[in-house]
Design brief:
508 residues, alpha/beta, Rossmann fold, Arc Repressor Mutant, subunit A, 3 domains, 11-stranded mixed beta sheet, 3-stranded antiparallel beta sheet, globular
Amino acid sequence: MKVGIDMGIASAGASAMLDLEELLATRLLVQGNSGSGKSHLLRRLLEQSAPWVQQAIIDPEGDFVTLAERFGHVVIDAAAHTEAALQRIAARVREHRVSVVLDLEGLDAELQMRRSAAFLGGLFEIDRDHWYPMLVVVDEAQLFAPAAAGEISDEARKVSLGAMTNLMCRGRKRGLAGVIATQRLAKLAKNVAAEASNFLMGRTFLDIDMARAADLLGMERKQAEMFRDLNRGQFIALGPALSRRPLPITIGVVETSARGGSPRLLPLPETPHPEARALIMKIDESEVPRPAPRRMPPPPSSADVLTQLTQLAQSRPAIAAPAEATAAADIGPELDRILREILADEAAAFRPVAVLYQDFIVRCRIRNLAGKPLDLAAFRRKLTVARAGVDTDLPDDAEWDQAVALSAELPEDIQSLFLLLAHTAKRRAPCPPDAEIARRCGSHSPRRARRLLAHIEERGFIVVHDDAAGDRIVTLPQLGWSTAPGNPDGAPRPTPAAVTDLFAESAG
């Protein structure tokens, strides 16, 4: 059944209809300067499509939480949940087909990027059984997929940009239809914007944005001036879900509004000047004077906290008491023990490296370890080996050194998986199941584990094959090692003797 969404009025007075099924397959990009009516357009789209499709809104300003009362959306306060919790919530959102608003208001830019990325990752990393159609609307998309690095840490930008790229590039097969809105096309990553096939371009004034909008709509550069003349709520539509030719439309009315609404002009009170002065200068002795409220500084970013902790640890003099301080030459085993304690927490597998490093530095200070602590790069290398389940205090081994060198040729996020397979194969132990591989990679999805194995195999580092019983064997051809057969599902295979006994019992 074809579902048409009435977005407003086209130039000829007819209804401007949007094909919802086509939109789910082709994605949408909305662009316009502040005040052009982008939020109004998104609200119209969400209200009109709410009865037909599940929705998830990434809301950096808390503008769309009012959809909850009228349309039943569940509001998720991102500030009240960890990244791991948001990932689990997103998986349940898809499983139970609930429309939600992820409210990011009150978080700084870096936390908004990290928590939205975790939520989008949960929507993306879900079993095929739950790939139901979902409209994923991201307001102010330039915050989550910036075209250039800014004051945000590289790690936060990489995580957020990866989540947005997955949504726009690979989300269609998983039922995720991305709808992204931005004030400035020039500030939005090109590989994210390029995946949209439908466009709604509103008022904009900068030449670089007008030129890029004209290019996306297939218009000549001299026609780009028309974007300056659009009024609030007017957009140029193009795409298979909207129109095959650029079509001016005016967005229709909406049923809900943002919590604050737009500021409106009000006449000033007609108070004579002497009375106005008396009102503001009068001091009432009965009033208890209150100190002026102090404005709290914004919370420091994760990168600033890590830098401060590292500098503090480096500048702190070593305490001379040998009974309490560990000698600098002997801190290696103690660092390994601290790292094992951190990874003993099940939630550590799903925490960002920066958070784990901060915990590591604090524990080192508590134990009063002398000497210079590990920097972030050295901590990453040690963490990669530890996450693979390999003892960090292994004796020198030329073969193992070769495995570590090979892992360095892989992307950082899958190095620990390669070392896990190498360590398993070196000991000739059974191949790990999908659930264990996923956990070591910071995911709950066995499907992701299988994709990572396939990715490493495509790069020629491993060969995956099954034996006659269906158990998985992983061979590392460059090292000449192979794992023992292991069941990918984790359940042990019945032994031949057990099968014989089972048949004997059935015959009896």
